[in-house]
Amino acid sequence: MITVVGSGTGAPLPEDVAVGAELVVGGRRHLDAVRLPEGARTVVLGALAPALDTVAEYVAEERPVTVLASGDPGFFGIVRALAERFGPERLDVRPGVSSVAAAFARVGLPWDDAVVASAHGRDLRTAVHLCRAHPKVAVLTGPGAGPAELGAALGSAGRVLVVASALGSAEERVERVTPAEAAARDWGAAVSVVLCLDEARALGPVRSVAGPRPGPAGWALDEAEFAHRDSMITKFEVRALALARLGPRPGDLVWDVGAGSGSVGVECARLGAAVTAVERTPDGVGRIRANAAAHGVDVRVVQGAAPAALSSLDEEPDAVFVGGGGRELPAIVAACARRARRAVVVAMAALDRVPAARRALLDAGLDCDGVLLQSSRLAPLPGDVTRLAAANPVFLLWGVRPHGRTEGVAP
Fold first, then answer.
1. Tell me, what's the pLDDT at 407?
2. Enclosing H/E stretch for 267
3. CA 204, CA 197: separation in Å to the nearest integer?
4. 391 sits in which H/E element
């Protein structure tokens, strides 16, 4: 067996935890904290692959191995790598309290409804988008992805950051700061975890399923679910296919350009994505914010006319919906297609604009496809009978970046 022991936040490893082991693997501080068996070989964890190769030698000879880790080693920890290499049946895992559990305990909040993201050795952008989209997120930090970088990326997102450092030690600090305050400080290497909270919604309702709230039971909502002006809203039939091609998911960033009522952006946010809506009219900005609030989601709204307003958006989107644009539509589609990491979806009522929009998608290196959507809805007639009421036809084009190709994405 490979015995995997987590130190637990605030609970030191028992000195005799490695008794009987012929190989002990762990960080230097963990190895220094335990009584090593006489004659046992030690490996200081750094690069994982060489350590696993050494473990494999002892496993092959059926010699006992102990691996020391922090907190709960099955939670973003070494258990995954060990199970993949040697099989879970060989592991005897003894978890401690994770830094995430300890941090939420320090601030007196339950965390069964929290989203947890690891930025340790990973791109910070996924954690940032989760923080924007969800009211309660824990971020496991790492070099180059700490509180300062997280705060700078969040900007004025209406969040509070709780920075927990050196949890369980005499130097423990738990500090509440704004994203701007976090961005202005050097936090050093002792940060254990950062909690990102929308404090007004941090105490969510009791649920029977842990993790972020479940996705919506339905989407492509009826137009009546949104405030809009003179039926100027993406109809639910069009919205259904647009959402399918956008593919919004937790950790994504979606732009809704020419957002109008914001119905597409709000639905993307309901599906877990972070959303930025671009709208030129003040009354449209107000409607988008009202619709987002009515559906309990966060949508960042930027007032301005595309394509010029897009230059103020400093992060590349995963997907973009373009629902307005007029004569500027080809330039807007081209600007979005240059920056989209995955897909651009364009809705148009005017036939004349389809060729130029398609050319803009193709010129940006995207694979392009589309449909003309013509639908008729059931409508009542006098005498308790029903007719079909035709809706205006809409062209929907989508461009998808070929898998693995990123040269079209702006730096």
1. 44
2. helix 263-270
3. 12
4. none
> How many Å apart are CA 248 and CA 40, to the nearest integer?
51
What does the chain come to in residues?
411
Say how far apart CA 410 and CA 74 lie, in whole Å.
Answer: 38
- Report helix, strand or coil for 410: coil
| pLDDT, tens digit (0-9, with 9 covering 90-100), for 352-384 | 999 999 999 999 999 999 999 999 999 999 999
Name the residue with tokens 């013509």. 374
Q: 56, 53, 24: which is closest to 40 by C-alpha?
A: 24
**Report field, pTM of the whole predicted structure over 0.90:** no
291: closest CA among 309, 311, 275?
275
Cα atoms found within 13 Å of the Cα of residue 24, Cβ hemisphere only: 25
Contact by Cβ (8 Å): 30, 69? yes
User: Over the stretch 101-121, which tens digit does the pLDDT of each residue have?
Assistant: 999 999 999 999 999 999 988
- The kind and range of the H/E element at 113 are none
